[in-house]
Amino acid sequence: MSDVSIIAPLVSFLLTLVLGFGLSRLAGRVGLVDIPDARKHHLNDVPLVGGLCIYTGVVVCTIIWVENFAAVQVMMAVAGGVLLLGLIDDLSGLSARIRFVGQGIALAAMIWIAGAQLNDLGSLIGTETIPLGVMAIPLTVFCGIGVMNAINLSDGIDGLAGMLSMIALAAIAVLCLQAGRIETFQFIMLWLTAMVAFLLFNLGQMGGLLKQLFLGDAGSLCLGFVLAWLCIDLSQGSDRVFAPVTAVWLLALPLLDTVYVMIRRLRQGRSPIAPGRDHLHHCLMRAGLGKWATLSIIVILALIAAINGVILHGNGVAESKQFYLFLGLAAIYWVVMDWVWKRRSDQDITRRLGPVQGNEHTQQG
Q1: What gap in Å lies between CA 214 and CA 192, rounded to an integer?
Q2: Segment among 26-30, 158-162, 245-249, 322-326 with least mean pLDDT
Q3: Is pTM, for the whole model, over 0.85?
């Protein structure tokens, strides 16, 4: 693939762009559109074909140019199954149980067909590697589902899921380049250029020239699956590209947000997987920030975390230190988010009941 290292990503970009024009017209006819409701900000029906465009652009280039790279071909085949699962969900809606079963099947295929699984967690606590033994397969499935749904749940404002995925993929590409994994680097470039084309539809729309597209569940789940596969496969074995803890830094923002929201809902007696407006982007927008400011803040934070992960790995910082630093970041995130939501709740109570007088206390509800 080295002799076409420039042509292939360019074709991936152009093909995704062309498909965006064509499939946006077809989407309305088959009902593959996102219809506005009380939880959504867009005013018109938006085609949910962004993920299909990206995947098709990448898979065509993979078939034409990627040779002797069986793992990639298996990945694209299984990712196609994840895309199909998402398309069905976008068209008719699937229960959470069916979605999780489908994701589990895809990850099982990743494990048994391609042999990509978490065999160890690296040296998280001391200098000794932590083997997983019989927990390898269940923990691989658990982590894979976690990454897939973290990307899916981040798809709440224009460009967010795409940008967070691009940051993680770009960081993985840099690490592959540093490790001499040129074929993997070039494969990731196919995804990055296709996603740039998608973001032209999703964000810029070039003065109305391009019809807006959304990733849909198909796109966000497919991207999450590819990220999960790469993070799992490249962090294992004697020739690993990076440590397992490095992968956590590359996906820090979507993972922290998802874990925080799920635990917060459980504390409130709510379902952790129910739809809601309590993610980080909702929090920032409720604080009065616009869409672009919210997107910029989250992307900058995700970029800082990913760059930090690359630097820590590149400088040979002990995995245990990387892990403890990440735990510190998670604690800061938790404290700040708890404070913000408490402050928002207090403001909501004040607006409904008036200011608290003296030592009196008001209770919500």
Answers
A1: 17
A2: 26-30
A3: yes
